[in-house]
Amino acid sequence: MIRTVATTPYDDQKPGTSGLRKKVPVFQQKNYAENFIQSVFDSLEGFAGKTLVIGGDGRYYNREVIQTALRMAAANGFGRAIVGQGGLLSTPAASNVIRRHGAFGGLVLSASHNPGGPTEDFGIKYNVGNGGPAPERITEAVFARSKVIDRYLTLDAPDLDLDRTGTFDLGGMAVEVIDPVADYAALMETLFDFDAIRAMFAGGFRMAFDAMHAVTGPYATEILERRLGAAPGTVRNGVPLPDFGGHHPDPNLVHAKELHDLMMGPDAPDFGAASDGDGDRNLIIGRGIFVTPSDSLAMLAANAHLAPGYAAGLKGIARSMPTSAAADRVAEKLGIGLYETPTGWKFFGNLLDAGMATICGEESAGTGSDHVREKDGLWAVLLWLNILAVRKESAKEIARRHWAEYGRNYYARHDYEAVETERANALMAELRGRLASLPGTAVQGLTVAFADDFSYTDPVDGSVSRNQGIRIGFEGGSRIVFRLSGTGTEGATIRVYLERYEDDPARLAQETPDALADLILAADAIAGIGRHTGRAAPDVVT
After folding, report:
1. Which residues are paired to 530 by β-bridges?
2. Which H or E element spans position 67?
């Protein structure tokens, strides 16, 4: 039943920080998905007879590629495949299934927070046996193989019924279709005080959760409404759709504006949250307050001991370099390690596996812990609920008390999306060329203290990652970071991160744009954003 199919390489299958992402029509090219999947399998060793997990976020083309991947996995010698019912598995749930079932690895089909539909985005990434994204040595091997691949292996077999749970045979490989929520919900019950959260809801606590017609809908409905007793309708847009209802499934203040407006309104619920396309990002909004992802990481870390799964304390905190330093002050007070890594969840994996960190976070709304090896949107929401239930204070009260104790890192990210790649590269190259001359200069009344291109040496395996983002630091603790994002599918996204630290009690309640006004002007003056991009303003402000 095994068939060898001749193919020719594509030259654009280099995985980014979260796998290979392209438009659906690109993946629909002859043998395009097959080439990449076979390149993954050809780059691995020792998987004969082992288990492969496959699932995705339900976006357009998800089911077709799962069927293709199953036939290829069987033809290449995997002994067992575990698939989420309907082809669904959130990214953190997939990580959990890999770990819980001792799988060799997994294929996660998603383009995360990017739009879905016939002409929109699709993606494939490979996760290794610890449940986390493949390290660079594997992704580099996959890319190298994709440039010379000349054949792939598959089966002549019909599609399987993915809508029915149970175990099926596919050319000698057992395919187990599982409830995508069950294992994940069971894990959450071990980490959080469901009784305390349930009592809070029973006492009249109201919440709004926007699943954005993405994969988290079934997870949130089962956990929040069925297990924790939140009122029916707490989960909004809870049915996953291939095109996410025509919306952009990115939980930020632009694409979740309806939730933000509700939480800032006169009849706001007590707490609001959202998650993204594949369930690994989160948005936290209390009544009358948006909590930035950087602040959320710091506040979760400072209060994690209130949840049973973290009652023994944290081993360390890890954050990506562009994430604000708010968590650093928490780590210092707790007397634990703080690790600043490049952007990309894979860099946290070594720290988690080595027991050096417990909670990790990125400014791009990704937060998680050592329970899996991916960021986890619903986990962050549940930890917030656990903290609210124990402290019996609102999110706004918790934030204000936190800033009074640690000071406040005013923070924003400005995204210039789909910039012509040549223009984006020219901006970064020109900026790199000026780094040595910037220290000591004054810009918009701010004096540059340092300027560098971030380099990271992994404290576990000694590997070095260079050119991870340009940092401009000012006297007094303010900072601007410039980097190009690898999560889009066309052009380049220039991300500009702005941060100002304030510990004056009289200045902790400013509006963020006001607090960052001088930094916004300085960023354009230093990098020539308008000159290089032709843009007068960012496309998205987070």
Report:
1. none
2. helix 62-76
Amino acid making up residue 39: S
CA distances from 525 to 450, 492, 520, 522, 532 (A): 16, 21, 9, 5, 12
- The C-alpha atoms of residue 364 and residue 470 are separated, in whole angstroms, by 17
Yes or no: say if 182 and 84 are a contact pair by the CB < 8 Å rule. Answer: no
Q: What are the helix (H) ranges across 476-527?
A: 512-515, 517-527
By annotation, the residues acting in catalysis are 112
Q: How far apart are CA 295 and CA 303, in angstroms?
A: 12
Question: From CA 520, how far away is CA 92, in angstroms rounded?
Answer: 35
Q: Comparing C-alpha atoms, which of 197, 152, 161, 189 is closest to residue 40? A: 152
Digit-coded pLDDT (tens) for 445-474: 999 999 999 999 999 999 999 999 999 999
Q: How far is CA 82 from CA 44, 88, 353, 514, in A?
A: 18, 11, 24, 51
> Distance of CA 406 to CAs 302, 340, 400, 477, 501, Å?
10, 19, 10, 14, 10
On whether the pTM is more than 0.85, the answer is yes
262 within 8 A of 207, measured Cβ to Cβ = no
Among 218-227, 230-239, 533-542, which is the least confidently predicted range? 533-542
- In the chain, how long is the greatest CA-to-CA distance? 73
Calpha distance 335→323 (Å, rounded): 20
